[in-house]
Design a protein that fits this description.
The protein is α+β, with helices and mostly antiparallel strands and 364 residues long. The chain is built from 15 helices and five strands. The chain folds into three domains: 3-126, no CATH class; 144-213, no CATH class; 253-363, Yope Regulator, Chain: A (2-Layer Sandwich), CATH 3.30.1460.
Amino acid sequence: MYKNDLLEQIRSATGLSDCYAFCKAAYQFLSDLQPDKRLEELVWFFQMKHEHPDYRNDDVQLSEELSNQLNDYSYKFSDLIQGLIDFFSVNGYSEKKFYQELWNNLELLLADATLEEKGFCLFSIFTNARIPYYELPVGLQLLDNKFLEIVDIIKPSIRQLEFAMELTRGRKRAELTSRVVHLLENLDNFEHKSVLLVCFWNRCYKLWDERRAKETGNKNGDSAKQNSSGSSGSDKSKNTSFLPRNIQNNGDIDIIANYQYPTIKDNEYAFALVRKGEDIFLSDQGKTLQQLDKIFELHEPDVTKNLVAILRQYGAEKQGDEFVIRIDNWNGNEKESENEDIKKAILSLFSCVSFMLNMKIFYV
């Protein structure tokens, strides 16, 4: 397989099955290259996505066999791939650094996978909204009190923004955005501009939610009546196993190491490598459950079922309020860069909690 052959496959791809086929061929092609040559081709491969935007067609009819196969792969790998992209895309890496890290960790996590599975994972990356990756500065991080302080400072601009949105309601979108640009130009501070844009997007989301609620009001009202009529029976099946609670630890717990990882949903996280008796675990220290409790009714059976499924998919388990991954082959080396078992556990646990906090499974 040569690059020109791969290029022809990309150019001729008109449907989902073709896209999956050339990704499978591409994985084999890339695996056979020397590391320095592979990186160059990897960057080129993902950039081809925008050069040939008609590479896939979501309406293509798949055979039942292929459809079932891709569904199985999706259940097994899609969230893992999203977790990897989430993990590496927020650090301000160069394009080459990002793709190098992505490929190296993909190879690590897919060491025992088949070529078909590896091809699907490359397909999932290729079709991800964050690919091609572009090098951008690390995003601005503001603590809540600092954010609110800036909101107070720019209140006049926020009021003008709200007025502009009301003034242009139902009119051409460029009319509104041009006024937003004007308001931004009147602010000299980068942080102030960033916060004003947050207010703009929040207002847009609020208007969208109001419109959607209005359009689906009758349907939701009927559904609420049905749920109300059958609520007495469902209360008996509620599960409290995922509710946060104060737990007295049995025995000594030693923290061996801490690992920072990127912000998710505006919260800083750190994993801890802990020893509990004779066992070694990587733990999220109960942070994820705290956040989930703010969003969902954790006693509801459907929520519990989905959380259990996500944990199982990533090889994690719940211990008290913590989500953990057991380190079976502990060799005493806590350095992520030197211990592949630790590195793999960190990536798997990150993917697990990232998926939970993004709440994708609850909106399908």
